[in-house]
Amino acid sequence: MRKVILYIAMSMDGYIAGKGDDLSFLDGFDHLSLVQSSYAALMDSIDTIIMGRRTYDWILSMSEWPYTGYQSYVLTSKPMASSYATLTQETPKEIINRLNHEQGKDIWLVGGGKLVQSMLKSDLIDEIVLAYIPVILGDGIPLFNGVYKKFTLTGVEHEGGLILATYTK
Q1: Closest listed residue to residue 85, CA positions, set 125, 44, 57
Q2: How many helices (H) and strands (E) does the chain have?
Q3: CA max distance for the chain
Q4: Rounded to whole angstroms, how far apart are CA atoms 80 and 110?
Q5: CATH number of the domain at 4-168, out of 3.40.430.10, 3.100.10.20, 3.40.120.10, 3.50.50.60?
Q6: What are residue 30's DSSP bridge partners?
């Protein structure tokens, strides 16, 4: 069975973006070998990407599509045609059940917050890899926002103030 992996960075106080979708708190960490090696390992282990519509729109507004070569799905209430991803009205449970019946590598849940929370509530995430950024934002988009689930810590690495923690169900 394919694993659903949430690989994401967040502030020390649990936000994945600041006010106005600001991600500047992530600046200065991409060069770390820990970040580069863990991201490369993730990308080698997956062939499918899932994200919410706001994340998809944000990615397209900031850069060229970075996930060429991966099957990409965007869960949205307003699907439209896209040359980058399949925009679908499937529920998280429906798409994960469908993908688990197909051959393939693991699945990366990119974000955002609402989709992560929905997938956690439906018990659809098998592994969480959290990059804790040594910043307290105080406000923004929360990652978990009242969801309670228990995971087991299976690995911790650190470099340059960043902590990378891996948790499994």
Answers
A1: 57
A2: 4, 10
A3: 42
A4: 20
A5: 3.40.430.10
A6: none
The model's pTM: 0.95
> What burial class does residue 144 get, using C-beta atoms within 10 Å of its C-beta: 0-12 exposed, 13-18 middle, 19+ buried?
middle
Tokens of 45: 């282990």
Average pLDDT, the chain: 95
The phi and psi torsions of 52 (rounded to 5 degrees) equal: -85, 170
Report the pLDDT value the prediction gives residue 65, as an integer from 0 to 100.
93
ω into residue 111 within 30 of 0, thus cis?
no
| Residue whose tokens read 């200065």 | 28
The three-state secondary structure class of 30 is: coil
Express each pLDDT in 19-69 by its tens digit: 988 999 999 999 999 999 999 999 999 999 999 999 999 999 887 899 999
Q: How far from 90 is each of 81, 87, 95, 99, CA to CA, in Å?
A: 15, 9, 6, 12
Report, in angstroms and rounded to the nearest whole number, the Rg of the chain calculated over CA atoms.
Answer: 15
Pairing between strand 4-11 and 46-52?
unpaired
Pairwise CA distance, residues 38 & 139, whole Å:
27
